[in-house]
Amino acid sequence: MHTEVKSILEDVRAGRLSVDEAALLLKTEPFADIGYARVDLHRRIRQGTAEVIYGAGKTAEQIAGIAETLSANRQTRFLVTRLDRAKEHELAELLKDTALSYRYARDAQIAVFGEAPAPDGIGTILVATGGTSDIPVAEEAALTAEFMGNRVKRLYDVGVAGLHRLLPHIEEIAEASVIIAIAGMEGALASVIGGLADCPVIAVPTSVGYGASFHGVSALLSMLNSCASGVSVVNIDNGFGAGFLASRINHMEAKQKEG
């Protein structure tokens, strides 16, 4: 994983940073206490990605405060997830006179601060959905993965109710380094793709479905019981978690012990 620490050390080796400048970056306070939140300022150093702000349950004022704190501490790229349209309007108003700007993806309910880096993963992440109703969760996954420096290909509405829609894309499935399979109802898409792919498959159950789907529990249990090997499962509607995990997999580096 290309973490911020590794980037700092490479900058020192290349002469872009002095030893003292690098030491200052690493000595920064690990978090900032702003009363209602302890903002993690070292997450980018530890994990390569700044803290992600979960918008649901927070007020627009709280989100703006956390965003301004991140920005004031050299965190120029970060996400706000689960940001509904009404709250986004409030956030835009709160930040209009600041230097902060963002791009809002309405389907995914994500605000993107800063630009995504050029893709540097080992391959392509394929995001597939069972139906059109699953696209909001899929876009959360896809945008998260793109923001973390991955090539992403979208393959929407290829569920098992019309399996022939998936079969023309066998080559894309074979070429992917990670696949995110997103489906509601009975959640069978993950097993189908898991039986075709030779790469990790991350299954995302969605809350799409009629009464007995129990808001995604039916799809969750089906995916957990998948008979296809190599399928892992994240929580219901957790597109962000799937995109984050897919990026981790797509950025894996071989770790060899010396001696």
Task: List the main descriptive attributes of the protein structure presented here.
259 residues, Rossmann fold, four-stranded mixed β-sheet, globular
Give the helix tally: 10
Structural domains: how many: 2
- Sketch the major β-sheet: 5 strands, parallel
Separation of termini? 22 Å
| Assembly level | single chain
In CATH, the topology of the largest domain is named Rossmann fold
Classified by CATH, the class of the largest domain is Alpha Beta
Based on the structure given, which CATH architecture of the largest domain is correct?
Answer: 3-Layer(aba) Sandwich
Counting DSSP E segments of at least 2 residues, the number of strands comes to: 11
Strand order of the largest sheet: 8-7-9-10-11
Q: What general outline do the C-alpha atoms trace?
A: globular
SSE series: HHEEHEHEHEEEHEHEHEHEH
* Structural category: alpha/beta
Low-confidence stretches: none
Summarize the amount of helix as a percent range: 25-40%
From the alpha carbons, calculate the radius of gyration and give it in angstroms. Answer: 20 Å
The portion of residues forming beta strands comes to 15-25%
Provide mean pLDDT, rounded.
87
